[in-house]
Structure formats: structure tokens, C-alpha cells
Amino acid sequence: MPRTLGRYWLVLLLALSALWSLVAPVDASPSAASPTSAIVGTPVRGVYVRAPRGATTASRPLQVLLALHGMGGNGEDFSRELIEQADHYGWLIVAPTIDYGDWTNPNVVAREDPLLIRSLSDYLDQLPQLMNIQTRRLVLVLGHSRGAQLAHRFAEFRPDRVLAVAALSAGTYTLPQTTGAQVSFPFGLKDLSQYAGHAFDPQRFTGIPFWVGVGGQDTNAADLPRQWDTIEGTTRVQRAQAFEAAMQRLGANSVLRVFGNARHEVTPEMRLAACAFLGNAMLPRAPHGTPLSLSPLSY
User: Fold this and answer.
1) For helices 106-131 and 146-157, what crossing angle results, to 10°?
2) Which range (79-83, 129-133, 199-203) has the least confidence?
3) Which of 46, 140, 142, 255 could form a disulfide with 166 if both were Cys (CB 3.0 to 4.6 A apart)?
4) Distance between alpha carbon 289 and the CA centroid of its chain, in Å?
């Protein structure tokens, strides 16, 4: 075979191999992982899926961890530091890569997040067939920064699909309230039916365990859009506190953790605390909502 023709076939084979890696279903064998194709018509460029070590298609349904990266990130990189904990707790990582729009513009957020939530919900519904695995209906959601903003809104829109949420260092929050000043989405939930097709369901929502984390030094007001100032404060710490206060007024199951000298980052301590909280949320719960755990986890 001529050398040039041989090179041609080699390039063709490599190209076909790369194409297959984008569409091949995940084999739920130890530490298997697969990027999948984009969700058409949305800012989702692809979804990285990784089964926990030791999982098989014959195993009991897997617990999904929906992992949401921040601005400029991608699902696979964001998931890399979660693999050890995912294997420990038996989580199937589902990590979309999202081309977020201008998160500082409330009008953009009001258009973008409902579309993302609807698309990701549909994807999760189709996941068992796409990947030939069984999954639990209720998902864990973990997000950082812009991903934390999407994470808590996902629970507000779809409390029927969420087991627990860990939101790290969100820049803005949609407060879980429908009355008072400035409560239209994305500031509040008074008009949620216009975006989700149904009104806010406080009864379901308050049953979701929430963990909100933020760095104690994440206090640069210049990093944040000003439209949320009057209702949430000017820094990520103040806004996390405002969200937690709104959750407490609602009677929601929520805890706020401020991490001393941490800035706008995900430190190992923050990551472990978030994962411990989500792991604890998987435990059976007493009638009053307390996890049935012999050794309480620190989060």
C-alpha cells in the first residue's frame, strides 16, 4: 500500500474512533466514563457520564449526581475531583458542559435557566435508555458558582426530581418566596408558572435537604451584578446568608457553611463537606426528617 494511502486510512480510522467516543453509551463497569453528544437546541455542548467503580448493569439502580460547573468550565474537568467521593458513595456522575450566557443579566438568566432545567430534566429521564443502566428517580445536585445558581433553581423548578442540593459560592440566588418586593423570576418565584408551567411547590421544596457553602473571603462586590443588591446584599457571603435566611423563614431543611479563609474556589475541605452532606442525604430518614446515621457526618 502506498505510504500516502496508508496515512489516509490511519487518519480516517482515528477520526471514526473520535466520533464513536462522542456517541458510545457508557458501560457501567468499574470506573467507566463516556462523553455524550450535545443536547440540541440548548447551551449544553455535551454530557460527561461516569459510573462508580464496581457498578454493573445488573446492579441496583444507581444514584445520579448532577454536577454543574461554573463559568468557563466543563463537565469532565469539574467531575475529576469528585471521582473518589463518587466511588465511595456509589454515584453515577452526570456532568454537562454548558456554554452559559451573561449570568449578570437577569433577562438572560430568566430565558436560559428554564431552558437548561427542562433540557437536563428530559436528559435525566432518558438516561437509563441512553446508557442501558438503572437510575434512581431523585437526583443529587452539586454546583459551583454559576453551576450553584443553576443547581438551586433546578430544585425550585423540579422539587419532584431532587433528593438533595449542595450549592457552592453562587453569585446570585432566586429566593424561595412569592410575596414581597422584587419576587419575579430570577429574583423570586412569584411568576414561576410562566417559566416552569406550574406554580412553586413549597411543600415539596421544603423537604429537600440543602447545603449552601461559601468562602469567608469571597467578598469582592465588583465580581457580582448589582441588580440583586437590595434583596441579597453585595457579596457572595451576604447573598448566601440572605438565601439561608429565606430558607429558614420558609421552614426549609437548609444549612449554611462559611469556610474561613477560602476565596472564590472549591477547596478540598469544601468539596468533602458538600459530598458528605449529599451522602448523608441518601440515608433513610426518621419521620421528623433526621438521617438515621449512627455516626453523624461533619458538613
Assistant:
1) 70
2) 129-133
3) 142
4) 23
- The pLDDT of residue 28: 39
Average pLDDT in the chain: 85
The grid cell for 90 is 456509589
Name beta bridge partners: 214: 258
Residue 26 has pLDDT above 70, yes or no: no
Domain assignment of residue 57, yes or no: yes
What proportion of the chain, given as a percentage, has pLDDT over 70?
Answer: 81
CATH number at residue 268: 3.40.50.1820
Q: Is residue 299 part of a domain?
A: no
Residue-number span of the structural domain to which 46 is assigned: 20-281
Are 168 and 146 within 8 A, CB to CB?
no
Which helix (H) or strand (E) element contains residue 236?
A: helix 236-250
Q: Return the exposure string of 176-186: e unless at least 16 CB atoms fall within 10 Å of the residue's CB, then b.
A: bbeeeeebbbb
Instruction: Note whether residue 5 is domain-resident.
Output: no
Q: What is the grid cell recorded at 26?
A: 457508557
Residue 296 lies in a domain: no
Provide the domain count of the chain.
1
